[in-house]
Design goal:
The complex is a heterodimer of chains A (408) and B (216). Chain A has 408 residues and is of the alpha/beta class. Chain A is built from 16 helices and 13 strands. The longest helix of chain A is centred in the last third of the chain and has 18 residues. Chain B has 216 residues and is of the alpha+beta class. In chain B, 54% of the residues lie in helices and 16% in strands. Classes of the chains: A alpha/beta (408), B alpha+beta (216).
């Protein structure tokens, strides 16, 4: 298990001191996290890391999971898609069943938290209990809410507004609500396999295993093979740049298993790459964190040319490794990159190609972007900042008050 | 003698439900914004880009330039000299007047692409003690060298602008408690908005160092 102190060499003693100070203020308080799954998925991954760290800081952090059968999760998956803008019609019965399962869980659970911290829509209606038991209720939205279909939004809004506050990952993901909305970005863990320091030898061995030449420039995009990540646009941008600068292209990621179009996309990428020996298409198995880490660290430029994106934490991962990043100005990416200061934001294939050429030919400027990018991630997108923001939100809820400045 | 107590601050950001797609809506949003919103958008970059020079401008100028491509207005908003203002209300008035004057020139109103709207946000500050204190000039100098950069930020920016003290905490203490009027004034006169926070620390330390040598 990781200890808070393990982060001190990375973020410095002052950040660790702040964490303990906030921990003192929240000492013994029960923060009851509730979500819908103990394993798999981003939320479970975050809670798995956060809960033990909060406990080390003296907070009585708990983690409970609601129970629901196949039918319930089928409905919540449809909710999820509709929140992303997929046009779906819902029957009244689906809402009724959703509420029934939430109510059953509410009766079975020990809702004892000083803060009851609900993650995502699946357990959202547990808040019906608030009238009976009081306490501070906090709802965390981990998904992109920017284009929900009205029927599902109206249904969920009624519950969200029963909470004392809601947390969103990016301003664009939020909606108009009557309750306070806190902005808390997601984060990366600098000590995880995907982000920890690797030796030059480790990086070289991964590149050698894929037969990529580290002595020549490498442009890399790490993402699943999905149209929304625009792998074909990446190949086109690379080909346009390649006419003038020597480089290799690496497209690496997992298959889009829940996407029926996954195979079609993969075949289209292979076709577009044709027989170019400098394009490497790497289909990585799920446990490839070290390989991804090495590919990012060894690359000259990292791309994230998505057409649509959630928060896009692969950008933070690459910036953390001091890589110059060229990424699309979509989803949460503009929050991570300030154009020409800590990376490059583009909107087109042509623009991406232009900046590939620039950064390969101007290594000093590219290095400056990487250096600033790392600093930006260090100050804003590491798990320690995420913990701090959560604790400040708990304090805000428990101590109340609308003042702009609070002395702790 | 009252020692100088070094504090630091942590910020929590709130969304306000107010968005702007163009300059007219930016102006409307500004008019209804409380001080905490003005503070957030004129000071956020300073804290996030501790080492970058030149520093990116305030959020209003940055969005006007990079999203709306209204270069003339962006330049005017960027050039607003924050150090001139003693309160956020005065700064807000200047921002409003700058946009109003520009609108009188009859510019074409462009909308931001969907998803690139300006989101008005506000900050709540939580202030905590760092455990560092100083009782004399030498101690103050030695401590200022090692405190977190956010501590310097709190006493130089937040104290003056947000807490309405009219001056930074360092100058107030040096002047009122140590009677060091000259260096207090010199620090008050620094423009902290056009230098990185580390550069600012160096400039303050230089002023105090000279005074310590004089005393020797």
């Amino acid at each position: 298990m990781r200890r808070i102190e393990d982060y001190e060499p990375i973020v410095g003693r002052f950040r660790i001191h702040e964490l303990y100070k906030l921990g003192e203020k929240l000492n013994g308080k029960i923060i009851q996290n509730i979500n819908s799954t103990a394993v798999g998925g981003g939320v479970a991954e975050i809670l798995d890391r956060m809960v033990p760290l909060l406990r080390q800081l003296g907070i009585n952090a708990r983690w409970d999971v609601i129970k629901g059968g196949e039918e319930f999760f089928k409905i919540t998956k449809r909710f999820h898609n509709a929140l992303h803008g997929v046009k779906l019609d819902f029957h009244e019965k689906e809402f009724e069943y959703f509420l029934e399962v939430n109510r059953e869980n509410a009766e079975m659970m020990d809702l004892v938290g000083d803060v009851i911290f609900i993650h995502d829509p699946q357990p959202i209606a547990l808040v019906e209990k608030k009238k009976e038991i009081g306490r501070n209720w906090l709802w965390r939205c981990h998904i992109d809410f920017s284009t929900p279909i009205p029927q599902i939004w109206e249904f969920l809004k009624g519950y969200i507004e029963e909470y004392d506050a809601a947390i969103f990952s990016a301003p664009a993901f939020s909606r108009e609500l009557k309750i306070p909305q806190v902005l808390i970005s997601p984060s990366i863990d600098p000590l995880s396999d995907k982000n920890k320091e690797l030796s030059t030898e480790e990086v070289r061995s991964v590149f050698e295993s894929f037969k990529i030449d580290l002595s020549r420039p490498v442009v890399t995009q790490i993402s699943r093979f999905d149209y929304l990540k625009d792998p074909l646009g990446v190949i086109d941008a690379y080909k346009m740049a390649k006419k003038y600068v020597d480089c290799q292209l690496v497209l690496a990621g997992g298959p889009a298993t829940d996407d029926p179009e996954g195979e079609i996309v993969f075949n289209a990428i292979k076709e577009r790459a044709a027989s170019d020996p400098d394009i490497f298409i790497l289909l990585l198995p799920p446990a490839s964190d070290i390989e991804i880490n090495a590919l990012q660290r060894g690359s000259t430029i990292v791309l994230q040319k998505s057409l649509k994106e959630g928060f896009g934490l692969t950008v933070a991962e690459a910036l953390w490794k001091e890589r110059p990043v060229i990424a699309s100005a979509v989803g949460g990416i503009p929050l991570q990159i300030t154009h020409k200061y800590s990376g490059i934001l583009t909107r087109t294939v042509e623009g991406t190609s232009f900046w590939i050429k620039q950064l390969i030919q101007e290594p000093d400027f590219a290095r400056m972007l990487g250096k600033n990018g790392k600093e930006r991630i260090k100050n804003n997108f590491l798990i320690t900042r995420h913990l701090t923001d959560y604790m400040l939100t708990f304090l805000h809820l428990m101590e109340g008050g609308a003042e702009d400045i609070v002395y702790l | 003698m009252n020692p100088f107590v070094f504090y630091t601050k942590l910020n929590l950001t709130f969304l306000t439900n107010v968005r702007a797609r163009n300059i007219v809506e930016l102006l409307e949003g500004l008019k209804i914004s409380p001080d905490s919103v003005i503070y957030h958008h004129t000071h956020r970059f300073l804290q996030q880009h501790v080492y970058i020079s030149p520093e990116p401008p305030n959020d209003f100028a940055f969005w006007t330039q990079n999203t709306l491509h209204e270069s003339i207005l962006a330049e005017r908003l960027e050039a607003i000299n924050i150090i001139e203002f003693k309160t956020l209300a005065e700064l807000k008035e200047r921002l409003i007047k700058t946009i109003e004057d520009y609108l009188k020139e009859g510019p074409e109103i462009r909308n931001a692409p969907p998803g690139m709207e300006f989101h008005f946000m506000k900050s709540k500050s939580f202030v905590i003690k760092t455990g560092f204190n100083a009782s004399n000039l030498l101690e103050f100098y030695e401590t200022l060298k090692i405190v977190d950069i956010q501590t310097l930020y709190f006493h130089m920016f937040e104290a003056r602008m947000r807490m309405g003290k009219g001056d930074n905490d360092f100058s107030i203490w040096l002047r009122n408690t140590l009677g060091e009027k000259e260096i207090a004034d010199a620090i008050s006169k620094l423009d902290p908005y056009t230098v990185t926070l580390e550069g600012l620390r160096k400039n303050i330390l230089n002023i105090i160092e000279e005074r310590i040598h004089e005393k020797d």
